[in-house]
Structures are given as C-alpha cells and as structure tokens.
C-alpha cells in the first residue's frame, strides 16, 4: 500500500561533487555538498530521471 502523504510530496534530484545522485524532499534544505538538478517532481519521476542521468555508478574520483 502506498503512503498517501508520499504521493502528494514533491522531490528533487540532487547530485554531489562525485556525481552521485539521490532523491531529496523539496521542502527540506539541501544537505551540504549537494545541488539540485531540475525542478521538483514526484518521486517516481525523480527516480526515472536519476536512471537517465546516472549511467556510471562509480564515484567521479575513481573513473
């Protein structure tokens, strides 16, 4: 069963200096070292965007 609150929440795709991606609630302050990519969207949309963007799972420092 899906949490109704989660369905109404918007999220951001965020990225750090190692080009690692995550989903972050849009109503919260971004953690240090992370930057938003794009605009707020639903969680599923953000996860789909991460799948498109994050094609190499290795941190940037080891590529």
Automatic annotation (TrEMBL):
InterPro entries, sorted: MbtH-like_dom (IPR005153), MbtH-like_sf (IPR038020), MLP_fam (IPR037407)
Single GO BP term: siderophore biosynthetic process
Superkingdom, natural source: Bacteria
Domain called MbtH-like: residue spans: 2-52
GO cellular component, one term: cytosol
Protein name: MbtH protein
């Amino acid at each position: 069963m899906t949490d109704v609150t989660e369905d109404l929440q918007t999220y951001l795709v965020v990225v750090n200096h190692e080009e690692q991606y995550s989903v972050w609630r849009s109503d919260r302050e971004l953690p240090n070292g992370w930057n938003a990519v794009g605009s707020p969207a639903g969680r599923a949309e953000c996860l789909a965007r991460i799948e498109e963007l994050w094609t190499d799972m290795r941190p940037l420092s080891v590529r």
